Amino acid sequence: MNTQENMLLAVTKNDNVTSQKLSGADAIVQSLIREGIDLLFGYPGGAIMPVYDSLYRNANAINHVFTRHEQGAVHAAQGYARASGKVGVVIATSGPGATNLITGIADAQIDSTPLVCITGQVASHLLGTDAFQETDVIGISMPVTKWNCQVTRAEDIPEAISKAFYIARSGRPGPVLIDITKDAQLAEFDFKYEKCVGIRSYNPAQKVKTKAIEKAATLINMAKKPYLIFGQGVVLSEAEKELKVLIEKANIPAAATILGLSALPSTHPLHVGMVGMHGNYGPNVLTNECDVLIAVGMRFDDRVTGDLSRYATQAKVIHIEIDPSEIDKNVKADVALVGDAKEVLRVLIPLIIPNKHDSWVQEFATYHQVEKEKVIHNDLAPTCSELSMAEVIHEVNKITNGEAIIVTDVGQHQMVACRYAEFNKSKSNITSGGLGTMGFCLPAAIGAKLGAPDRQVIAVIGDGGFQMTIQELGTILQTGINVKIIILNNEYLGMVRQWQELFFDKRYAHTEMQNPDFVAIAKGYGVTGQKVTKRKNLNKAISEMLASDNSYMLDVRVKREQNVFPMIPTGASVSEVWLSK
Amino acid sequence: METNNKYSLSVFTENHLAILQRVLIILNRRRVNIESLHSSESEVSGVHRLTVIIRSTEETAIKLVKQIDKQVEVIRAFHHLEDDTVFQEIALYKVPSNAVVNGINIGSLIRDNYARILAIESDFMITEKTGHQEETHDFMKKLEPYGILEFARSGRVSLTKQLAQMSALN
Questions:
Q1: Helix axis angle, A70-84 relative to A102-110, nearest 10°?
Q2: pLDDT tens across A233-252, in order?
């Protein structure tokens, strides 16, 4: 019926028929189709034009989302990957197109997001000559990719792409980049695609060691005060059910890292909150009280641990982690269980004896009560007339019942959203955790909606971060994607301002923002918006926004100078939590 | 504070240009100084070995090896203390030819130090000595009175004393 299907049939039936030659560019597109890709994000340009021409001819098989900036494309692909659990695919041209991807690739690397990025490159005879739009993208992207390679011959394209997908999605996922010269895109060759199933030098799935599992089980069974911290590894390995079974069986209180949020429903009685710099009181303080600390799919980031020399030194640490280089990197593990979280938990659970730790679990509730009185109450029912960020998130919860995907940017609004948003389903919290990339949210929300089209996607974003990738409103305009945007607008780079207030004697150096009329800008992009300044209008505005069939933006004016607490200052221990200034 | 020791990192890789850069990036990120670097083929066809000499604590060496080992094109990486390896370096010395004519002792100096003459030209000659860094350095000191026109020393080539660390491959 169409050239693409004919081509596929021909290639699979008659691999050796010379008349079925494909150009390198067509081979790229056909390889993506063979990997099950039906959606990618990108931005055209000179050195990738043959691939765009192929995408034009294969538009029925692959949908391309044209973002307004390559950084938008890569963040959208991240959002797509995080919401769907699939690999996000990005294409861009050489030179500036490729360098514009770097921030997003670095973000994906540190947050273990599977991406395949394909960049065009100048013709191979021009490599190294400072040709127009030539840049050494292999060199530039090397520190921030799980793997990268340059292809200069068309016949090497299928193998490079199959390896790229295998590497991106296996083991600890991550971004890969393939740089393909223009002459390789134009040259013709006999196309044959074989899926990569293994690489000699790469061992992504280590066998779980039985001895270590038994040791871990003994520790957990003997523990009086067991405590579990779960990270994104649970989401990536889809071990949500196993996590729940384990904590329920052994009655272990469990806290999330920022990227672990939503792996366990927020309302689960054993879900005690979030750890980290702005995490919950009990989960941080009691890290230094537990006797066995079970870390599942998390990497003891410095924002989680605070001062390492005073972090959980009293506890036996069981570290369940797929990446061997994370074991003992920051926190010494007494028992290291290297492997996929789901597989490890499946083997571990049968060895766990049902248990009760009521008084220990109660300790978390006691701390929560203190946090409620000293922090949460003020956040949710402020006495001032201005809205707090937490109130807005709380109103969202009331209407969505925790069913929405919440995408956040970086800063105060992110911390507040992660503290207060409720999540019923996994893959519902999408944020830039490790890299802290402002500008992540809007494009990531677009990608998340495409990755989970049946779910409500809400971008919660600061006025600073919004303006870093605001041009992606154009992507919403052109694609008609239904994304809800809530700007928590305090006309400041709020988190930096908070630090200036607390640690730089209120010298607000370049954090105050003179902002444009966001509602007018949204209107210009065909997105309905309204400004919310009063508490009494908040619920109605959110309801209207969520009821809309189209993208919608709320510019919510929140209290200008409000600080996020609890807070563990840099260098302090997790037991030294500030509940106020 | 843990003491710094000299470690030999043996990294077995697929024959790929980029992997050297990846290994160096990992070392540079942790600001570890590279004292010597050598790349060659190994006993297994298609597998390259890098020998990187660093000075660090054992803890850092272990972490570095894990981060290197996880690179897709690294087959295996190991760290060894100097005492656990047998190693050599090769040094070349260019001295003026008149040193041969005028210096009565240079012939015996070369013999006594197990060095050898590689080339003699009208203006200069090139001598080679293999050994540990201290030995090649000592020999340089001995040649200095004759004038050294040029000096070069290779990276360290080393093998471990333990048997068959690459057995995992086969």
A1: 30
A2: 999 999 999 999 999 999 99
The fold for domain A3-190 equals Rossmann fold (3.40.50)
* Mean pLDDT score, A410-427: 98
What are the contacts of B135-141 at 24+ separation with CB within 8 A?
Answer: B136/B89, B136/B90, B136/B91, B138/B113, B139/B91, B139/B93, B139/B113, B139/B115, B140/B91, B140/B93
What is the assigned CATH class of domain A210-363?
A: alpha beta
Does the beta-carbon distance from B18 to A138 stay under 8 Å? yes
- Could you give the angle at which helices B17-29 and B58-69 cross, rounded to 10 degrees? 150
How long, in residues, is chain A?
A: 581
User: Quick check: B63 and A139 CB within 8 A?
Assistant: no
Two tokens, residue A123: 């013709």
Cβ separation of B72 and A147 shorter than 8 Å? Answer: yes
At residue B105, the pLDDT reads 73
pLDDT of B104 reads 64
Residues A63-80, mean pLDDT to the nearest whole number: 98
Residue B17 has a pLDDT of: 73
Compute CA distances A81 → A37, A89, A232, A452, whole Å: 12, 9, 13, 10
Give the position of tokens 């009821």. A547
- pLDDT tens for A99-139 read 999 999 999 999 999 999 999 999 999 999 999 999 999 99
Q: Report the share of chain A in percent with pLDDT over 90.
A: 96
Q: Name the residue facing A202 among B62, B66, B72 (closest C-beta).
A: B72
Comparing C-alpha atoms, which of A251, A261, A257, A256 is closest to residue A226?
A251
B82 and B9 assigned to the same domain: yes
> Both tokens of residue A436?
């802290």
Q: Which pLDDT score is estimated for B162?
A: 80
Is A559 labeled as catalytic in the residue annotation? Answer: no
Q: What pLDDT score was predicted for residue A3? A: 38
Whether chain B has a CB inside 8 Å of the CB on A140: the answer is no
CB atoms within 10 A of CB A546: 15
Domain A385-557 belongs to what topology? Rossmann fold (3.40.50)
**Same domain as B131, residue B77:** no
Instruction: Please give, one letter per residue, the 3-state secondary structure of A458-511.
Output: EEEEEHHHHCCCHHHHHHHHHHCCCCEEEEEECCECHHHHHHHHHHCCCCCCCC
Name, in order, each residue with C-beta under 8 angstroms of A152's C-beta and a sequence gap of 6 or more. A124, A127, A181, A183, A184
Show the CA angle centred on residue A47, arms to residues B14 and A38, nearest 5°: 75
**Contact (CB<8Å) B62/A328:** yes
Give B 48-107 residues with CB within 8 A of chain A: 62-63, 66-67, 69-75
Nearest to A430 by CA among A450, A447, A416: A447
**Amino acid at position A6, single letter:** N
Query: Which chain B residue has the Cα nearest residue A323?
Result: B70
Residue among B18, B62, B169 whose CB faces A142 most closely: B18
Strand partners of residue B157: B88
Range 269-288 of A in CB contact (< 8 A) with B: none
For chain A, give every residue range classified as CATH 3.40.50.1220.
Answer: 210-363
Largest CA distance in chain B: 57
Q: Are A300 and A331 in contact (CB under 8 A)?
A: yes
Question: In terms of domains, do B40 and B109 share one?
Answer: no
Strands (E), A63-191: 63-66, 88-92, 115-121, 147-151, 175-181, 188-190
- Structure confidence at residue B55 (pLDDT): 95
CB-CB neighbors (< 8 A) of A138 in chain B: 18
Please state the domain count of chain B. Answer: 2
Minimal CA separation from A138 to chain B, in Å: 9
Beta bridge partners of A578: A567
Tracing tokens 């609890």 back to the chain, one arrives at A566
